[in-house]
Backbone:
């Protein structure tokens, strides 16, 4: 699997932005990707060194549109911690 297929998009929320000071970055990742694949994909795409990866399965939320109801798709989230000597990811710098 290519690095672009593993890392789907960055998560831009107030909570995920507070982790940038500690070099923690949050991404939506492919559901079948493991921690080792996620770490290699982040290192390849952004040219940084990863020290730790935490993953979470996010369940779909119940949503209603009038009479009909259904669930939003479930997805996987990864919180990637970089090493202390690693450079920051430039993409997130403009968000702060």
Residues:
């Amino acid at each position: 699997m290519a690095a672009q297929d593993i890392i789907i998009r960055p998560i831009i929320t107030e909570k995920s932005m507070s982790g940038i000071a500690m070099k923690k970055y949050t991404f939506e990742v492919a559901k079948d990707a493991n921690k080792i694949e996620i770490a290699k994909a982040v290192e390849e795409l952004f040219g940084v060194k990863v020290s730790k990866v935490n993953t979470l399965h996010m369940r779909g939320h119940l949503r209603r549109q009038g009479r009909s109801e259904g669930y939003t798709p479930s997805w996987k989230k990864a919180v990637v911690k970089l090493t202390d000597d690693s450079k920051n990811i430039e993409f997130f710098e403009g968000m702060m």
Summary: The longest helix spans residues 35-46. The two ends are 31 Å apart (CA to CA). The chain has four helices and six strands. Residues 3-84 form a domain with the Alpha-Beta Plaits fold (CATH 3.30.70.330).
